[in-house]
Amino acid sequence: MLSDSGSAWSRTEFEARLREQGKAYHIHHPFNVMLNTGKATPEQIRGWVANRFSYQIAIPVKDAAVMSNCPDREIRRGWIQRMLDHDGYEIGGVKDEGGIEAWIRLGIACGLTREEITDGRHIIPAVQFAVDAYINFARQRPWQESVCSSLTELFAPEIHKQRLATWPEHYPWIESTGLQYFRNRVTQARRDVEQGLEVTLGYFNTKPLQLRALDILKFKLDVLWAMNDAMATRYGVNT
C-alpha cells in the first residue's frame, strides 16, 4: 500500500502512475480478449454491443453531471464537447448524429434491430448496476473527481485501434460502416485525455490527493471490468 506521507509526486511521475493503471483496463479482460482475437460468436458480439449501449447512453449523462457540479466556465465550455460527441447536434447547418447513433449502427451491422438495442431488453442487470454506479459517482462527488474518473480514456485509443485492426478480418460479416464509432473515438479520446489530464494533474497536487486520484481511477476501471464479468457470465468465454 502506498503511503500518503511525504512530498507530492511531480506531474511527470503522477501521470506515469495514472497510466500504469492501464494494466487493469478491460482490454485485458478475457471477454474482450476473445472479442479482439476473433473467437467470439455472433451471439457474443451482439450481446456485448447491446449491453455496452447502456454505457454509451450514460456517458453524456455523466458529463452533464460533471458540468452541473463545475463552477468554472472555461472547463464547462470545453467539457460540453463530450456531450455533443455522443448525443450529436445540429447547429448552424452543421449536423453530427453523434456517438450514440454510431453505436446503434454498429449494433445493426452486427444483426441487432434498432428497437432491441434502444429498449434495453438484452441489458444484464449487473451491467446496468455498474453503469448506474458510475453515473451516481459523477453526480455526487466533486467535479474534479468525476473528471479524474474519466481518465480510463488514457487507455481507450488502443482498444479502438485493436478492434479496427482485427474485427474486419475476424468478423467480415459485420459491415465496415458499422465500425465508424471506433474510428471516431480514436481521435476524440486523445483530445478528451488532454483535457482530463490537465484538470487531474493540476488539482490532485498533494500526496493524499494523488493517492485519491489513483483510487478513483481504479474505481472506474473496476466498473468496466465488472461489466465484462457480467457479460462473460451470461454469454461465456471461448478460448
Automatic annotation (TrEMBL):
- Key words of the record: Oxidoreductase, PQQ biosynthesis
Per the record, the GO terms for biological process are: pyrroloquinoline quinone biosynthetic process
- Whether Mitochondrion counts among this entry's keywords is no
Gene3D superfamilies xrefs: Heme oxygenase-like
- Pathways per UniProt: Cofactor biosynthesis; pyrroloquinoline quinone biosynthesis
In short, the EC number is 1.3.3.11
Reaction catalysed?
6-(2-amino-2-carboxyethyl)-7,8-dioxo-1,2,3,4,7,8-hexahydroquinoline-2,4-dicarboxylate + 3 O2 = pyrroloquinoline quinone + 2 H2O2 + 2 H2O + H(+)
For the keyword Transmembrane helix, the answer is no
Principal EC category: oxidoreductase
Recall the GO molecular function terms of this protein's record. pyrroloquinoline-quinone synthase activity
Lineage, top-rank taxon, reads Bacteria
Give residue ranges for domain Thiaminase-2/PQQC: 16-229
* Function, as annotated: Ring cyclization and eight-electron oxidation of 3a-(2-amino-2-carboxyethyl)-4,5-dioxo-4,5,6,7,8,9-hexahydroquinoline-7,9-dicarboxylic-acid to PQQ.
What NCBIfam families does the database record attribute to this sequence?
PQQ_syn_pqqC
Q: Which family does it belong to?
A: Belongs to the PqqC family.
What name goes with this protein? Pyrroloquinoline-quinone synthase
Q: Which organism is it from?
A: Ideonella aquatica
Give the gene that encodes this protein.
pqqC
